[in-house]
Specification:
Distance between the termini: 58 Å
Number of helices: 9
CATH architecture of the largest domain: 3-Layer(aba) Sandwich
Number of strands: 9
Number of domains: 2
Strand content: 15-25%
Helix content: 25-40%
Bound molecules: guanosine-5'-triphosphate, magnesium ion
Radius of gyration: 20 Å
Amino acid sequence: MKKKKQEKQKAGNVVLIGRPNAGKSTLINSIVQQKVAITSPKPQTTRKVIKAAYQDERGQIIFWDMPGVLKKNVDLVSKKTSAVPGKNLDNADLLLYIIDKTRERGDEENVALGIIRKIDKPKIMVMNKIDKPGKDFSYQYDFLKDEFDEFLEISALKSTHLKTLLEKIFSYLPEKKEDLFSQKQLMENKILNQTSSEFISELIREKIFLTLRHELPYSTHVVVENMEEKNGVFHIKANILTNTERYKRMIIGRKAETVKTIGIKARKEIELFTDKKIFLRLNVITDPHWPEKYL
Ligand SMILES: Nc1nc2c(ncn2[C@@H]2O[C@H](COP(=O)(O)OP(=O)(O)OP(=O)(O)O)[C@@H](O)[C@H]2O)c(=O)[nH]1
Ligand SMILES: [Mg+2]
């Protein structure tokens, strides 16, 4: 029997760019089949680069999740987060431009395009949310298809066409010269640039985004102060930082019900992630300087 010729392995950095809420973080979670990045229906959920490891028989990929590209930066948080995509594109072997086809193309999309056009790397246009019924603005992107090496429609949420996407991605990556990450690293944590306490603060921040309304989540940040195991229970102490005393009262809520809700949701998810019994203590603190300190 003829043996199938072993193809050379590939390796590279794949950077995701797109407006907020397009589904970048959802896509990375679906590809690596693990929650590595928090997601929410609110725009501007991701604030820092998250690098996630993917590996199969074809080779190794580091996926870079990034904050969404913004039209204008109204505050320090948006200023800091929106500077991230531009800074990191040079690291890419391949760019994925993620589009939410259920939203009309607008100024924000033009800002994203402006950034992408400056980069001379292979690029794939990925039209996301094909599972979502209702409005479809994909026709507004037809004229751009020539500027991209590939075009693909997917659903990040339902994992539709992700196999094809991965095939296309590998076809544009360079030959693997050395490991991008070790097997030990892959087994321990698919997130390559976050400690477990940083990831836990992100999980808490996600629950804030899912619980608090309007602009309130944007005034918050989470820092894990302490983690220790006592008698088989993992004790976590975390601070929720917010800009003003008024916000602090709103986050705590009447009879502390709001912060309790956030705590319960976060504890359940941390228990899933760590496979340990968790005792979570959340403190709400006023600190208007958190963006300077932590972003
Ligand atoms: N129906 C549907 N919803 C999706 C899909 N992909 C993402 N979403 C939803 O869209 C919302 C935003 O997804 P995220 O992955 O947080 O988007 P993002 O691009 O990372 O957003 P930022 O971090 O703010 O830049 C979430 O509510 C997701 O569940 C999809 O394929 N189909
Ligand atoms: Mg995100």
